[in-house]
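Teaching soon. Got one?

===
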Amino acid sequence: MRGEFRNEPMTDFSREENRAKMLKALDEFSATLGKSYENFIGGKAVRFAETFESRNPSKPSEVIGVFPKAGNAEAEQALLAAEKAFESWKRVPVRDRADLLFRAAEKMRERRFLHNASMVLEAGKTWPEADGDTAEAIDFLEFYAREVLRYGGEQPITPFPGEKPELRYIPLGVGVVIPPWNFPLAILAGMTSAAIVTGNTVVLKPSSDTPAIGWLFYDLLRSVGLPDGVVNFITGPGAVGGDTLVRHPKIRFISFTGSKEVGLGILRAAGDTPEGQGFIKKIVCEMG
């Protein structure tokens, strides 16, 4: 039985042992600088002909990593993989999906300083800022796991004589998650975990400024037993691939955090209902 939700404590960097752990994690992440990363579609590592570099904003000459540049064709492949995985994932018991998030939260605690280090070097965050981002990501994993246990079964509903009303929440289908660069772990983890723990599958497309941070989160999910295709990880410029996903008639929902300009464009594009789309897309659009 899980206890009540509590916010993850911040790391006290006035303690020498915590500073030592952070310095060690920075060395560990720095050892991977310039690495060529993969995308993951249907659980399989994939590379594309075109690539782009992620750089340290505090030291632009420093290449964090080289990433595949997903285009429209790759976005379509990721969507189809998510659609296939949805047929089995939606039937996984709620408690099993919640347990995946609880395991992910525990793993993130173990890897906390590595996630911090990735944000220091790829997003230019200070140590406390990076640690706060990681703590919030853990909070999202813990919170949404508990919430799905609360909402996953039959819900209370006003009785009516002669009727047997029933209310249950069901998964929607395939969604696309488009997180920002400024809270590259917390918001990414929150939007992704909320979608998958409720039985949906997603195409996750992190900001092209912070793809390594997103890659580490996807790697964490895989390490705790994420089934193939439930999260499909692709990288590249926002306009390429992202627009295809937003407009696609098989995308049921879109979770976006970013600029007003891009957000309004998503709202306009997602408002269309092309032939073959028998629903109106659900949009979560947080704009700065």
